[in-house]
Amino acid sequence: MTTSHAPLGSSNDALARAIELLSAGDWQAAHTIVQQEKSALGSWLHGIVHLLEGDLDNAQGWYRRADRAFPGPGAIREEIAAARTALDGPA
Predict the structure, then answer these.
(1) Is residue 74 classed exposed, middle or buried when 0-12, 13-18 and 19+ CB atoms within 10 A define those classes?
(2) pLDDT at residue 67, rounded to an integer
(3) Domain residue spans in the chain?
(4) 3 state SS of 32
(5) What does the pLDDT look like over 12-67, one tens digit per residue?
(6) How far is Cα 73 from Cα 89, in angstroms, rounded to an integer?
(7) Cβ distance 49 to 30 under 8 Å?
(8) Which DSSP symbol is given to 5?
(9) Whole-angstrom distance, CA of residue 75 vs CA of residue 91
(10) Dist. CA 37–CA 54, nearest whole Å
(11) How far apart are CA 75 and CA 5, in angstroms?
């Protein structure tokens, strides 16, 4: 995984940075990144952004775009961890 000081040279780098920001609770900065993403993972992260923000209707829309079940606001930490695993691949 990239560090917070790595340049955002690729989509995966940007998504990794967004995950770091979501883990830190900085949904505004993560939102700036995921707004530029068109992938399913980007849509999933966009949904997590709106979960953190508390905008559940918007979050549900992004989960639909990502073709993922909507977990509700109680699963934010688990969703961030799952997204990190999806980005990093199997160990």
Answers:
(1) exposed
(2) 97
(3) 27-88
(4) helix
(5) 999 999 999 999 999 999 999 999 999 999 999 999 999 999 999 999 999 999 99
(6) 25
(7) yes
(8) T
(9) 23
(10) 21
(11) 28
Q: Which two tokens stand for residue 55?
A: 């905008």
Structure tokens at 19: 């995950």
One-letter identity of residue 69 = A
> DSSP characters for 14-70?
HHHHHHHHHHTT-HHHHHHHHTT--SHHHHHHHHHHHHHHT-HHHHHHHHHHTT---
Enter the pTM of the model.
0.86
Structure tokens at 42: 């980007």
